[in-house]
Amino acid sequence: MAATKASKEQKYDRQLRLWGDHGQETLENAHVCLINATATGTEILKNLVLPGTQIFFLSNNSIGKIRAQAATELLQELNSDVSGNFVEESPDKLLDNDPEFFHRFTIVIGVQLPESTCLRLGSVLWSAAVPFLVCKTYGLIGYMRLVVQEHTVIESHPDNALEDLRLDQPFAEFKNHIQSYDLDSMDKKDHSHTPWIIVVAKYLEKWLSEHNGQPPKNYNEKEAFRQCIREGILKNENGVPEDEENFEEAIKNVNTALNPTKVPSAVEDLFNSVQCNDITSQTLSFWVMLRAVKEFVLNEGNGSLPVRGTIPDMIADSQKFINLQNVYRQKAMQDAATVSKHVECLLQSFGKPPESISEKDIKLFCKNASFLRVVRCRSLAEEYSVDSVNKDEITSCMDNPDSEMVFYLMLRAVDRFYQQHSRYPGVYNYQVEDDINKLKLCVNNLLQEYSLNVNIKDDYIHEFCRYGAAEPHTVAAFLGGSAAQEAIKIISHQFVPFSNTFIYNAMSQTSATLQL
Amino acid sequence: MADADEPEKKRRRVVELTEKMVVDGGDGHNCEWEGRWNHVKKFLERSGPFTHPDFEPSTESLQFMLDTCKILVIGAGGLGCELLKDLALSGFHNIHVVDMDTIDVSNLNRQFLFRGKDVGRPKADVAADFINSRIPGCCVIPHFKKIQDLDETFYRQFHIIVCGLDSVVARRWMNGMLLSLLVYDDGVLDPGSIIPLIDGGTEGFKGNARVILPGMTACIDCTLELYPPQVNFPMCTIASMPRLPEHCIEYARMLLWPKEKPFGDGVVLDGDDPEHIQWVYQRSLERAAEFNITGVTYRLTQGVVKRIIPAVASTNAVIAAACATEVFKIASSAFIPLNNYMVFNDVDGLYTYTFEAERKENCSACSQVPLDMHFSPTSKLQEVLDYLTESASLQMKSPAITATVEGKNKTLYLQSVASIEQRTRPNLSKTLKELGLADRQELAVADVTTPQTMLFRLCFTS
Predict the structure, then answer these.
(1) Given an 8 Å threshold on Cβ–Cβ distance, is B89 in contact with A473?
(2) Chain B residue closest to A112 (CA)?
(3) Tens digit of pLDDT for each residue in A233-279?
(4) Which residue spans traverse the membrane (chain A) (predicted)?
(5) Is residue A375 a contact partner of residue A497, using CB atoms and an 8 Å limit?
(6) Chain A neighbors of B112, CB-CB under 8 A
(7) Which superfamily is assigned to A1-156+471-514 in CATH?
(8) Catalytic residue (one of B81, B139, B163, B236)
(9) Does domain B371-460 have CATH number 3.10.290.20?
(10) ipTM value of the model?
(11) What's the pTM?
C-alpha cells in the first residue's frame, strides 16, 4: 500500500533534515544492487531500506536463495514503500553470461565475495563507470573498498566551514553599506546593536588608512587591532565601559574575520584538472558549472569565488542585521547570475540549450563553491597489479606493525589461502593449529609477490586462523551501518565518501582509511 | 491480500526462513539448530593472542551467555532497537529493556522493531514482542517506565547495563545509580559490586560509545564538559530583536502561546499535535513578516518546538554495534574492552577517534568527597543556586538545597513542589549569613541529575 506523500514526510522527517527532499528523491529513484544476503549483507540492506532506498538482491549460492528470499520479505515489512527484488543467480554466472546486467545500477555493493569474483566484477563495473562498494566482515575486522572513477560532490556539508565575509576585500555594495554607518554619531542603543561585521569593517578602514593599506598580520598587530576596537566601546559618565556584547563579538571574531579571502586549494586543483578545461558536449554539468565559476574567478570575481551570501547570527537589532544580510544575499544572487551567463556560453559553444542546467542548480553550486569535492578511487586492477601496487602506503603504515594496514594484508593473505585450499583458514577447531603455518606461507608468498619489505607479527596470523572466517553479528552490524551510509553518499551526491579503503578493528575499536 | 491470517502466516514463514539463515561452517552439536552459534563459539572456545588476560577457552561461556547473563538495555529507540537485535543475535537471551516512550511515526525510519500499526504503543513492549517472537529462545522483558521509577533492587540484578539514551540528565541519573550500588570494604572497592555501564549516543552523522566501570574509570560526570549545555536564544532577542526564523518561532512558542492560550486555558503546547504546530507556524510567519525575515517553514517550526535532532538508521547501527561488541567482550573476556571512549563521524569519509577519558579528581558524582563551594557569607542563596545550575561541571536542573541549621534540617530552597517553592523563594534573596549557615558546614543538594543527594561543604571567603 503506497504511503501518501504526507505520511512519507512524517516517516522520513528525521533524515530529511540531513539530506533534504532532493536527497531523498535520489534514494527513492536509485537502483542499488546488493550481492549476498549474509549477516553483513542484510544489515546493509536494512540500513538502506529503512530510509527508502530501492534495492535489488543477488544471492550467491543455494543457501543464499533462502536467505535472499527471507531477507526480501523481512525488508519489505521494514518499509512498505520499498519494493525489494531478488534474483537467484550467482554473480559469477552473470559475469559469464550477461555482464551488462550490472550496467543499470546506481551502485553495486558486493558482500563477502571471494577475490576472483570481486576482481571480475570490479573490471566490468569500472568499464561501465558504475560505483562498486566491496564489504567484508572477517572475525573482528571490517573492511570496505570503494571503487569509483570520479564522484562529484556539490553539497559536502562540511562540519566547520569558515564564513565568507569579504572583510579583506569588501565589494562595492558592502563598502557603501559600511559607509552608511557612523559609529561616532550613534546613540547608545544603535551603537550596541550594530553588527560586529560592521564594527570590524569600520575599525579596519581606520587601521588601513593609518598603516599604509596593510591589514593587521601577526599576533601583535591583531592584538593592537583588538585593542582599538575595545577602546571604541562606549563609556558611561564615570568612564566605565558599557556592556556592549556586539563589540565583544567583534573582538572575539577578529582572528577569523581577518582571514584573507581566497580560493581554497582543493578548488584550485579542480580548476586545474583536465575535466574542467576540456569541456565537451558529454561533460557532466558539475564540470560545466565549475568551468563557469573558474571563468568568473578569472574575470568578474577578481580572483575570488562567487559570494556565498550567508552570514552567522550576531548581536544586532533586526533591521541592521537583515539589511546587512541582504547586502550579502544580493551580491550572491548577482554573482550567481554572472556565473549563469558563463554557463550559457559554455553550453552554447557545444550546441546545448541553456536550460540544460537550471538556475537552481547554478545557485546551489555557487553557494557551495568553497566546499566542492571530487573523489577518485583507483581500480581494483590497479590495486592488485604488481606494477601499480601502492607500496609506499603499505610500507609507511607498516612502520607501525600494529597499524590497521596489517589487517588489509591479512585479508589479502586469507584470500590467497582460499584460492589454494578452497576454504578459509581455521573454520573448524581441528584446523586451527595446522592452518597457522599454511597461512604464514600465504602471507610470505603475498609479501614476496609484491616485494613488500614489511613484517607481519605471528600473532596476527594466529588470530586470523582463530577467526575461522566468522561473521560475528556486531561487527557485521558496524560495517552494515558504515557501508549503507557510504552508499547513500554515492547515490545522493551529498556528504563525502571515503577513499578508498576503510578498515575497522572491533578489538580496539579503532579504524583507518587507507589509499590503496 | 488483506485477510487477518496473512500477517501471522507471513510471520511464521519469516521465522522458518530465518531459522534457515545458517552461517557457513559447522561444528554443530547441542545448539538450537545446527551451527547457530558457530560465529560466537569461535571466540569463546579458542585461545588467541589478543584475548583478555583472564580469558579461558570454554564451552560453558556460551551457556552462561544464553542462560545466565542478564543484560539491561536502557532505551528502545534508535539505539535501543539496534542493541536488542545485536545482543539477541550474539547469544544474550536474558534481556530487560526500559523505555518510557510510545512509538511515533517519525521513529519508523530507523527504529525497525516498530511498524506503522504500532504507532502509539509503548516502545519497550513492542520491541520485546518483536525480538521474542522472531529470535527463538530469546527472552526480553519490557518495562514501560522512567528509569527513575525503578530502584536499586532492580538494577542490581544485571551483569551489564547498556544505555541508548537521548538525554544527558538520564545518563547522569543512571551513572549515579550505579555509583550508589558500589560497596566499599574498609575503603577498598569490592569488584563484585561493579556493574559495567556501556553508553552510546548519536546525533545525525556523529556518535560515541564508551565503557564505564563505576568506581574505576571515568564516569559520565567526569566528562560532563563533553556534553555542552544546550544553548537557548536570549530572551531579549526573541522578544524584541529577532533576526533568524528560529527567533520568530520561539517568540510564538514562548510568548504568544502562554498569552493567547489558543486551545484553551492550561492547554500545554504539544509538539506532536499538528494543529498546535500549525498555529505556531502561522504566528511565526506573521512575526517574521513584521521584520522581513525569511525562512520560516513548517518543518523548521516543528524542529524548533520539539528540539528535533536529525537522525538516520546508519549512525545508530554503527554505535549500537560498537556498544554490543563491548557487552560481548565484557561478558566473555574474549577480548580487552574498549578503554574507554570512541567517537565516530561519517560526514566526510569515516572518522573514529579512540581515547581514554580520565577520571576527574573532584568529580561531583564519583569522587566520594564532599565538594567545596566558596562563597562570601554576604552572598545570596540565589548565587549558590546559579552556581549549581550554571557550572559546567555540575549543570544541575532544579536543585533542592537543604542544610542543618541550629540542629534542625531546613529546606533552604526547593523548586519542584509549588507550595514549598513559594515558601522558600524569599530565601533566595537572603544572604548565607542571614540564613544561619556557618563556615565549613555541609549542604545537601538533590536534583534530577543524580539519584543520591550530593554533599557540598560551604567554605566562606572573606
Answers:
(1) yes
(2) B24
(3) 999 989 999 999 999 999 999 999 999 999 999 999 999 999 999 98
(4) none
(5) yes
(6) 46, 50, 78
(7) NAD(P)-binding Rossmann-like Domain (3.40.50.720)
(8) B236
(9) yes
(10) 0.95
(11) 0.91
